[in-house]
Structures are given as C-alpha cells and as structure tokens.
Amino acid sequence: MSAPGLDYVDSYYRRNLADHGTWPVLEGETEAEVCVIGGGLAGLNTALGLAERGRSVVLLEANRVGWGASGRNGGFVSPGFALSATALAERVGAANARELYALTQQALALIRIRIDRHAFDCGPIEPGIVIARWHGGRGDMRPYVDFMRDEMGAAVEHWPAERLGALYASDCYEDGAFDREGFHLNALNFTRGIATMAAAAGARLHEGSAVEAVTGEAGGFDIRTAAGRVRADHVVCCMSGYIGRGIGGRGARRLAAATLPVATYVMLTEPLGEALGAAIRAPHAIADTRFAGDYYRALPDGRILWGGRVSAARRPPRRLAALMQRDLLKVYPQLHDALPAVAWDGLMGYARHKMPQIGRLAPGFWYCMGFGGKGMCATTMGGELIATAIADGDERWRLFAPFTLGYAGGPLGPLIAGTVYGWYKLRDSARV
Questions:
Q1: What angle do CA 122, 378, 81 make, to 5 degrees?
Q2: What is the pLDDT of residue 406?
Q3: pLDDT digits (tens, 9 = 90+) for 217-261
Q4: 375-392 and 41-52 helices, crossing angle to 10°
Q5: SS3 192
Q6: For 56, phi and psi rounded to 5 degrees?
Q7: Which of 128, 171, 186, 207 could pair with 122 in a Cys bridge, judged by C-beta atoms 3.0 to 4.6 Å apart?
Q8: What's the CA angle centered on 219, arms 216 and 221, to 5 degrees?
Q9: Backbone angles phi, psi at 43, to 5 degrees
Q10: Contact predicate 308/324, CB 8 Å
C-alpha cells in the first residue's frame, strides 16, 4: 500500500519532479539487521551504504523520502560543514580539521560518481560556488582563500571586486572566493535518485511510516509504527530537525535536547528573460558572508532560485514570497520586475557546536543528523561513516567524538535561537 495523502510541499523541486514513484507503508512485522529512521539524505545514504555492503536494512520515513530539508534546500553541493573551517581548526587543530574536511571532499567525489554512473535526472548541474563578502565587513577574502587552499587543500581562488562585479552587478558585495569544487543541482531529484539506488541495492524503503516507539537494547531493538513493526540489531536515527516530532524513548529525547530546529526559506521567481543579464551574468551559485545571508542561483530558463533568512519559528512568516522578493530587490534593485512564482520553508537541525551529530548513543543505537544547512556533501559522508562502522567495524566515526550531544536549550531553544538571530541581524544591518 502506498502512503495515502502525502506529498511534497509546493516548490521548484516539486514542480520539476523527474518521477512520481512511491514506496509502500510498512505493514505487519519484519526483521532486518539495521533499521534507519528518517528518509532524508542522511538516512538514505546510510541505507544505501549498508545495502551496498550486503546488510539487510529497513528505512522508515514518516512522509515521503526527501520530504524535509533534503528536498527543499538551495541545492548547493560543496565540501565543509556549517562550522567554518577556520573555527574547526581552532577547536580540533589543523591536522584533525584537514582530516574532517577531506571526508567531505571524498563525499563530493562520490556524489559525482553516483550522478554520472546512474544518470540521475537532477540537473541543471552547474560548477562553482561563489562566497561574496557583504559590504561593510572587515578585511577582504584573501586570508580565507589562503587558509582554505594551504591548510584544507580546497580548490578555492580569490575574486577581486572587479571580477565579482562583472558577473554579479550588485553594490552589496566587495570581493569574493570562488570554490571550483562546488556545484549546484536539483536537490529533490537527487535525493530520490539516492533512494532509488538504495532500493535497487536491496534496502526496503517505507514512506508514510512514522515511528511511534523504539524499545530494546543491544542485539534486539523493536521499532513500531502505526501499522507495522521492525525487529533489528541496530537502529540509526536520522531525523535531524524533525527529531522532536517523532519517536519517544530516552535515546530520542537526548537527541532532541541536543538539536535546535532552524527554518530557512527559498523562493522561485517567474522567468525574467533578458532582464536577468542586467544583474546576474554567471551560472554559479552564490552566497554572502552574513550570518543569515542570501544564497541563490540563476536557472537556465531565466528564473532565480533565491534563499535566505533563518528563524526558530515552526511556521513560515506571512506573505513569505513578498518578503523574499524584497530581499532580492535589496541586492538587485534593477530586477524590479522580478515576481515570485512560489516560496517555501525548510527545517534544518543544528547543534550548538554547528558540526554534524554522528556517533553511537549505546551499543547498536546510532545517530547521523544535525548538518545545519551544509548537508548535501556531509550527509553522504555521514551515511558512509555509519554504514562502514556497522558493516565493517570502521572507527572513523570517532573523529566526531569532540562534537558531543550538548544541550541545545530544550523548550527554550527556539527562543534562544531567535534572540541570537536577532542580534546577528542587527549586526549585519549595521554594515549596510
């Protein structure tokens, strides 16, 4: 039986689905070596990695695969984490930071291999991501570029103001950094491609199968949904920003307490035609350096996919499309005829340290979540780390041991996050 009444939110990605296939609701009892909870990219990559290594795996998703942040984001694919590489090096040392960063570079290479080998219909795929320094910021981007190139081994180059301005005609930017490794794609079609790969490798995927309870201990977990039950040796929790809405139990409560759900927003414009060239003259994705800056890309049909803002609110603001249109016009006032076609929200999971939450709560109970808006590569990395840990005894997941499940504020978390965001917004506006 397919999941009744469930569908993706209206978005650019929903309007450009490459296929409309579904996976069945879990009904009755079944067994597996591993049960993965959550059908976003973290869960799907974990299931794929396990199935490719010959392990039996069941994945349970409350809605549709890729229904959450994995199928709603800006589609930026680049190495690294939500925590900046410089801050990461300060915390764990340059050598350890380089090792962690390299894992995401390997993940990016794996993504490329999978797209090419399986002919994912997840275009348009355009190379390069620009990080533009918002005007009023201190210094320039050259020290950052030097650090990323020399210490992290990143393929990054400095773009002076003249080069940046020739391609992005805005008074809001000064210089920038160009990441040659990064690229952008259709996030939902890519996520569904990973789901198809996992199913083809032998993973059993179930949509419309929200987990209601997880009980048991090492060697025997019981995972229950409204219509079914899975008995598994291992459980992997990959719910991220949605952890507070789902399963109960001590382990889930601990993960929820360590996770801060943060919303961000995306808008698709109507086609701009030749007017687009008055503002954006390059196909690369671009983001600015503010705490909650804009991130966007021009599409081949003359539209702009524009993202930005963060909020701890669970519901999108009223007149979201108009707000996003206003943000676009602040950067490109010459695009005064740009009209929104659709706007939507997405919910990310952040930890206080801004690094992924990857590890083991107890024997057999794993977690892979909290990618904080930088998850397209990092979820591939996380899924591989958990899969190889379970299947092969690989210990690389312990590289994330310094990033513990610290308390994120519990019920007061959204209020704290809103206060922090408000302060950063004031600081950013003071630079305008």
A1: 120
A2: 81
A3: 777 999 999 999 999 999 999 998 888 665 666 677 889 888 988
A4: 40
A5: helix
A6: -80, 130
A7: 186
A8: 35
A9: -65, -45
A10: yes
Contact criterion met (CB below 8 Å) for 103 and 167: no
Provide the CA 292 distance to its chain's centre, in angstroms.
15
Residues 239, 240, 245, 251, CA torsion sign: positive
As given in the structure block, the two tokens for residue 382 are: 């996380």
Domain 124-184+262-349 is classified in which CATH homologous superfamily?
D-Amino Acid Oxidase, subunit A, domain 2 (3.30.9.10)
Report the relative pairing of strands 57-60 and 357-362 from DSSP bridges. unpaired
For residue 412, what pLDDT band results from cuts at 50, 70 and 90?
low
Nearest to 73 by CA among 181, 180, 188, 182: 188
Q: What is the residue-wise DSSP string for 324-387?
A: HHHHHHHH-GGGTT--EEEEEEEEEEE-TTSS-EEEEEETTEEEEE--TT-HHHHHHHHHHHHH
Question: Percentage of the chain surpassing pLDDT 70?
Answer: 91
pLDDT digits (tens, 9 = 90+) for 263-300: 999 999 999 999 999 999 999 999 999 988 999 999 99
C-alpha–C-alpha distance, residues 255 and 125, integer Å: 35
DSSP H or E stretch at residue 320 = helix 320-331
Rounded to whole angstroms, the Cα distance separating 369 from 54 reads: 23
Region of 55 on the Ramachandran plot (φ > 0 left; ψ -120 to 50 alpha; else beta): beta
The DSSP-derived string for 17-49 is -S-----BPP-EEEEEEEEEE--SHHHHHHHHH
Structure tokens at 332: 């490109």
E strand residue ranges, 13-135: 28-37, 57-60, 76-77, 126-134
Contact in structure between 351 and 259 (CB atoms under 8 Å): yes
Of 34, 39, 37, 38, nearest to 56 by C-alpha is 34
- Is the distance from CB of 284 to CB of 164 less than 8 angstroms? no
Interatomic CA distance for residues 320 and 314, integer angstroms:
14
Q: In sequence order, what are the residues at sequence separation of 6 or more whose Cβ sits closer than 8 angstroms to the Cβ of residue 176? A: 130, 131, 132, 133, 141, 158, 159, 164
pTM for the complete prediction?
Answer: 0.94
| 128 within 8 A of 285, measured Cβ to Cβ | yes
Q: Which two tokens stand for residue 244?
A: 């507070």
| Domain regions of the chain by residue span | 124-184+262-349
Instruction: Yes or no: say if 262 and 370 are a contact pair by the CB < 8 Å rule.
Output: no
Q: Which residue, chain included where needed, has tokens 């382990």? A: 251
* Tokens found for residue 194: 């990973």
